[in-house]
């Protein structure tokens, strides 16, 4: 039979383990400031029709969502003149890269459907501690547009914007879960 002390000690141990596991699931929790760096594009994507400069749209979309949804107390754009020097607490640098893109095929979306001719966009985010430059976490997500429910299959712009919206939605969900 266990004594009260043993039971209390066991309960305290389990509480400490639960807190440690929770902290491991939330690697972004200690950070008060996030600086969103410029997005890069895999060099091979220009051949697949990735529009020049579209990575800036993706970066600005993610930046706006981080700001509007108050994911971090402070969110900065990595532009000259913005510094985290005035901000207290731990600072996180987000580096993004567009790693895969397919503009899809409108005719296949209309004629075949079921995902044929779908557009896709894949983004990888790496979160680094600004002070140590160590990787804290990385995420990779893919957004797809298959034109479902659109009798015309959707334009190339619609396919690109919808796949971008979906990938940012998925990334935001995972970022919030890590906070």
Determine the N-to-C terminus distance: 41 Å
| SSE pattern, N- to C-terminal | HEEHEEHEEH
- Would you tell me the structural class of the helices and strands? alpha/beta
**DSSP strand (E) fraction?**
25-35%
CATH fold-level topology:
Rossmann fold
CATH level-four homologous superfamily name? ABC-type transport auxiliary lipoprotein component
Unreliable stretches covering 5 or more consecutive residues? none
Topology:
Elements: H1 4-25, E1 31-36, E2 40-41, H2 54-68, E3 74-77, E4 90-102, H3 106-111, E5 119-129, E6 135-145, H4 156-177
Helix pairs in contact: 2-4
Name the descriptors.
single chain, 179 residues, alpha/beta, 4 helices, elongated
Task: Give an overview of the whole structure.
This protein is of the alpha/beta class. The protein has one domain (30-177): Rossmann fold (3-Layer(aba) Sandwich), CATH 3.40.50.10610. Helices cover 36% and strands 26% of the residues. The chain has 4 helices and 6 strands. The protein has helices spanning 4-25, 54-68, 106-111, 156-177, and strands spanning 31-36, 40-41, 74-77, 90-102, 119-129, 135-145. Strands 1, 2, 3, 4, 5 and 6 form a 6-stranded mixed beta sheet that branches. A hairpin with a 5-residue loop joins strand 5 (119-129) and strand 6. The relative contact order is 0.17.
């Amino acid at each position: 039979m266990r004594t009260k002390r043993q039971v209390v000690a066991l309960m305290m141990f389990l509480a400490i383990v639960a807190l440690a596991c929770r902290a491991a699931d939330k690697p972004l929790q200690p950070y008060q400031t996030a600086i969103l760096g410029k997005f890069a594009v895999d060099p091979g994507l220009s051949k697949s029709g990735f529009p020049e400069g579209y990575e800036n749209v993706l970066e600005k979309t993610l930046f706006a969502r981080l700001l509007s949804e108050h994911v971090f107390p402070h969110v900065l754009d990595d532009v000259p003149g913005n510094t985290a020097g005035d901000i207290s607490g731990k600072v996180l640098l987000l580096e993004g890269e567009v790693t895969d893109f397919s503009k899809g095929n409108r005719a296949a979306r209309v004629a075949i459907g079921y995902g044929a001719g779908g557009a896709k966009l894949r983004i990888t985010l790496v979160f680094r501690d600004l002070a140590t430059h160590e990787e804290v976490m990385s995420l990779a997500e893919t957004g797809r547009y298959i034109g479902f429910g659109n009798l015309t299959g959707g334009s190339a712009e619609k396919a690109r914007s919808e796949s971008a919206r979906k990938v940012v939605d998925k990334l935001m969900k995972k970022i919030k879960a890590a906070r």
